[in-house]
């Protein structure tokens, strides 16, 4: 049995119509759909070095980070560097991307510094599909983009989770609390 991995993600807050559209597409194309709702991953799954310290660090960062408003404006087919032959369909933020990058960077300080994958640059995204061929993923991206993609949402909390094979356990929810002027 593989040791459980720790991660931090943000379930995205979306308008009902946008959530329904994304959920319907994910149900058909994303094998993680039954496991986890639409989300942005900020701390990628890793073997915890000191789980208590990592969890405290994530909660502290969340407590001094304002909620992040964003707009997804581009769909892109992205080859998975860890799983050759798999292409993911990402929805990418235009507005809100700098704040997402900043949150990712600060989370990987302190006790999480050793868990940062420097070989995989961070690209904030919402994964909505996984395809065995790049052509199908590109066609899906084109379909999303021809509609004038503009999905507004908010990140209001981080969830610290434990991933073990095919199960995801939410250990705690850490609201983003600071006011933008703080």
Could you explain the architecture of this structure?
With 182 residues, the chain is α+β, with helices and mostly antiparallel strands. The protein has four helices and nine strands; from the N terminus they run E-E-H-E-H-E-E-H-E-H-E-E-E. The chain has helices spanning 16-29, 51-63, 97-107, 134-146; strands spanning 5-11, 13-14, 39-46, 68-79, 87-93, 126-131, 151-155, 157-164, 167-175. The strands form two sheets. The protein has a five-stranded antiparallel β-sheet with strand order 2-7-4-5-6. Strands 3-1-8-9 form a four-stranded antiparallel β-sheet. Strand 4 and strand 5 form a beta hairpin. The mean pLDDT is 93.
Largest sheet: 5 strands, antiparallel
State the helical fraction.
25-40%
In N-to-C order, the SSE pattern is EEHEHEEHEHEEE
Strand content: 35-45%
Number of helices: 4
Number of strands: 9
Radius of gyration of CA atoms, rounded to a whole number: 16 Å
Strand order of the largest sheet: 2-7-4-5-6
- List low-confidence stretches: none
Summarize this structure as a short list of keywords or feature phrases.
single chain; 4-stranded antiparallel sheet; alpha+beta; 4 helices; 5-stranded antiparallel sheet; globular; 182 residues
Helices and strands, with pairings:
Layout: E1 5-11, E2 13-14, H1 16-29, E3 39-46, H2 51-63, E4 68-79, E5 87-93, H3 97-107, E6 126-131, H4 134-146, E7 151-155, E8 157-164, E9 167-175
Briefly summarize what is shown.
The chain is of the alpha+beta class. The protein contains four helices and nine strands.
């Amino acid at each position: 049995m593989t040791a459980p991995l720790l991660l931090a993600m943000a379930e995205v807050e979306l308008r009902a119509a946008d959530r329904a559209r994304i959920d319907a597409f994910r149900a058909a194309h994303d094998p993680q759909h039954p496991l986890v709702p639409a989300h942005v991953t900020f701390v990628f799954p890793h073997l915890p070095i000191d789980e208590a310290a990592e969890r405290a660090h994530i909660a502290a960062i969340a407590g001094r980070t304002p909620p992040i408003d964003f707009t997804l404006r581009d769909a892109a087919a992205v080859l998975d560097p860890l799983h050759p032959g798999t292409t993911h369909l990402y929805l990418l933020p235009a507005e809100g991307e700098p704040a997402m990058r900043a949150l990712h960077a600060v989370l990987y300080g302190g006790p999480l510094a050793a868990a940062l994958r420097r070989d995989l640059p961070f690209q904030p995204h919402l994964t909505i599909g996984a395809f065995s061929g790049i052509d199908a993923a590109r066609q899906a991206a084109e379909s999303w983009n021809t509609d004038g993609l503009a999905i507004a949402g908010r990140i209001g909390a981080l969830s610290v989770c434990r991933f073990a094979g095919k199960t995801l356990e939410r250990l705690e929810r850490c609201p983003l609390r600071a006011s933008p002027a703080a």
